[in-house]
Amino acid sequence: MHQIKIFTFSPFSENTYVISDEKDETVIIDPGCLSQTEKEELHAYISEEGLKPVALLQTHTHLDHVFGSAYVKRKYGVKMYMHKADLPVLADVELRCKTWGIPGYEPVEADLFLKEGDTFTFGNTTFDIVFVPGHAPGHIAFINHKEKYIIGGDCLFKGSVGRTDFPMCSSAELIKSIQTKFFTLPDDYVVYAGHMEPTTIGEEKKSNPFFN
């Protein structure tokens, strides 16, 4: 059984995920911890639970999803995985933080890349990687079919979808990604998004105003 811990960090209310299984091996997904207090909160949980971080995974690299990525890499000696098409987004984060007056960001570099059709395994857990561009050019999602959940980043939210008014976004691509990669899954799959509370595929197919 998986343990999925959600932290909501930074003024952007971004969801950071710490996922572990019975082997206590852990992945950290989209660390948005910006302040020192938030970084300490993340570390306290990992330490108190006796978890062993083995990787840093990024659904995408908009600034609110990478605020804490350099910290996580350094603190736990793990590698950062992302989709190669999101490199221009990552390269823009430092300038965007300066432009918007957001202090405390430490630049980070990717180590390894994931693409559509790949799998990522840790402990007894396997994620299928799906490519879901639209909100970001290199956006990916992590699907665990055994436990029936998706770590979906900023694609599909409860009653909404990800923004597409940023550079390198596409509303048409986002809708296509959701319809072909998310809505083809069974209704009982849980969607853990980059913001707001979890939802299910069935609920969003039935009531999400972007599809009804």
UniProtKB/TrEMBL annotation:
Limits of the Metallo-beta-lactamase domain: 13-195
SMART domains xref list: Lactamase_B
Protein name per its UniProtKB record: MBL fold hydrolase
PANTHER family xrefs: HYDROXYACYLGLUTATHIONE HYDROLASE GLOC (PTHR46233:SF3)
Cofactor(s) demanded: Zn(2+)
Source taxon at top rank: Bacteria
GO molecular function: hydrolase activity; metal ion binding
Pfam family, one: Lactamase_B
Sorted UniProt keywords: Hydrolase, Metal-binding, Zinc
